[in-house]
Amino acid sequence: MTDRHTTGMTTRRAVLGDAHVDRAEAAKTAFDAPFQTLITESAWGTLWADDTITRRERSMLTLAILAATGSFDEIPMHVRATARTGASADDILQAFLHVAIYAGVPKANHAIKLAKQTLAEMEEEAR
Questions:
Q1: Do residues 4 and 46 touch, judged by C-beta distance below 8 A?
Q2: How far apart are CA 69 and CA 99, in angstroms?
């Protein structure tokens, strides 16, 4: 393991939670192992590990980019991550309002729908 991989796993667990990372690691196969290494070292070990901006800010950017590019499958995971990054529901909405103006209302609308569902699930799970 490289230092970047170790840092990536630590950061990935801090942001996404142990349960999510454990599920991803358990589902990893020889086919997708190179991809898992790539995202662990680059996304988590380099980008998310950098402290130039806060994890709260990084969450908001990530959610906006996911919505703007139509990468909707990733949105619930990153909404759940806000419980650990410090981004609030208001922060999430602000990110998606930016998407509405700069990338399109339909994308923001769908992202908001996904966020509402995920936030409601998170609230229910906390009870």
A1: yes
A2: 10
